[in-house]
Each structure stands twice: as structure tokens, then as C-alpha cells.
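Document type: protein sequence-to-structure record

Subject area: structural biology

Format: plain text, a pair of labelled lines:
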Amino acid sequence: MTSAIDDRFAAGIDIGGTKIAAAIFDIKNNRLDQIIQPTPQKYTEMVDICAGMIRAFDLKFKASASVGVGVPGSVDHQTGTVPVATNTPALSGQPLQKDLEKILSRPVRMANDADCAALSESVDGTGQGFATVLGLIMGTGVGAGLVSNGKIVRGANGLTGEFGHIPMPFTDASDFSLVSCVCGQKGCIDKSINGAALARLYTHRTTEVADAVKIAALAANGDHSALAVLDEYYTQVAKAMAMVIHIYDPHVIAVSGGLNALPGLYEQVPKRWGQFCMIKNPKTKFLPAKHGAMSGLRGAAWLGRSQG
């Protein structure tokens, strides 16, 4: 039996490599409650956690909220599966959407986490009022989702925005060494501009060890080595964004993820991408996501609500 959806509430789930977050929102997209739990290694435990979060919201608010789920990796919308989830291997090939629908007795909508972030920013975030919004996640991995006129753009293979698994463009002899990717290729954008890539570059140039957070702090305090590394890193990001502009031509690139607060990111990358673009002064805006780390959760909830 399907539960009647109470349209006053929308719940979103964001499944990540280290944690699963769920939140419930009111009709104006205000967050009412949130639950965070570690991501388990077993698929059955993952389903139990996701279902338990929604049941907790149902109990607390005495209503059946709509449900949307953001997942890492491309989504096969015919089967409701994620064929390959590199950050959460237990999820790969599993019928998460159907399993949750069966347990929760209601429809569940599912999309790539970057699609959800893009949707959130398009609805009432950085991209509000713009026709095309690319939601870019830069952190442990690099991925994106594309929204056009308020709708997630979905292709035949669920790969829209997965430019992270295309080799870095415009490479030259001065670039830092390319590394292998879990997708089977070498030199992917994901492995060239993610957080680990920034840390590797810093160690390569300075022989010291620091993660992205420390590098950002050092640069903010005027450390010359950190500033020089970020200068080199921003050129790599600009190369990747130039390719994104050529392929998707978005009005706005809204950036979320662990790297979205690097000092100078939003000034330096647009200054550089023109040298790699056919048009030397692209009109695309490169801006931080308004809702930051909450973009994916908010977009997942909006996705669930949009099922009508």
C-alpha cells in the first residue's frame, strides 16, 4: 500500500563515501531537521539506514514526506540503479530506488548528487534566474550536474556532467604528473584537480605534506609556497573549466564541495580560462554555491517533491 504524500514536507538523502545525510524541509524549503550517519560497507545496511532516517522524520512530523535521493555516480533511470559507484562500491548495481520504495511504501526519486546540487542552486541559489546552471562539486572527487530551465538534463547513459572522467585538456610538459583513475583511465580531470591532486602538487613543489584545508589556510596568511601552488592549481582548474564551457556553455557554474572556499578561486579561474577558450572573454559566471554543502541535500528533497 502506498502512503499518501503530505506535500508540506520533502525529505532528501545524500549518500556519500563517508557519510549519509538526510534532511526534511517545509514547503518553503526551510530545513526542519537533519540526521547524519556513517556510510556502511554493506548494501543492506545502507538501505536500512536510509529507510530509518525517513521513518524517523515521518514519526517526528506525523506525516509521509516525499523522498529524493542523491547518489555518487551515474544513475540508470530505467532500473533505478547506480551501475558504478566508485566512492560507495556497495551501492554499485543495486536496486536502491526500488528497495526504498518497497520499504517506505511511496515513490522515491533518485539522481546523481551533482545533479541534485545543480537543481538546488537553480531553484533558489546562485543560479536562480539563469537558464542553464552547471552545479560543480570539487572535493574528494570532481563531478557536475546540468540544469536547463529548471530541469535536470538527463542523457541516454546518465552521464551528463561526468566530465571528471575525461582526460585533462591542454596539458603540456610543465604539468604535474598524471595519475591513474579508478575508471581505468590515466590523467582524468577528477584526479587532476580534486583535493588529493592539490595536496600532491603541494608536496611535489615543496616536499612538505599538507591537505587542501591547510594549503588554503597557509595561502590566506600569505605563505609564498602555498600561493605559488594555488597559482599553478588554478591554471589546471581553468583548463578543465574551458572544456566545460565549450561542451555545456552554462550561464552559471555554481561550485560546492570541500574546495569551494579556496582563496582566490572565483577570481583567478575566470581570469585564466579565456586563454583556453575559443571566445577569449566567456560570459559564464563562476560562483560559490549559495547553499554550499547543503546543496545536494536540498536538491534531493526538491527532486522528490517534484514528482507531484
About this structure: The domain at 126-289 is CATH 3.30.420.40 (Nucleotidyltransferase; domain 5). The two ends are 18 Å apart (CA to CA). The beta strands are 10-15, 19-25, 31-38, 66-71, 108-112, 132-138, 142-148, 151-152, 252-256, 285-288. The chain has a mean pLDDT of 92.
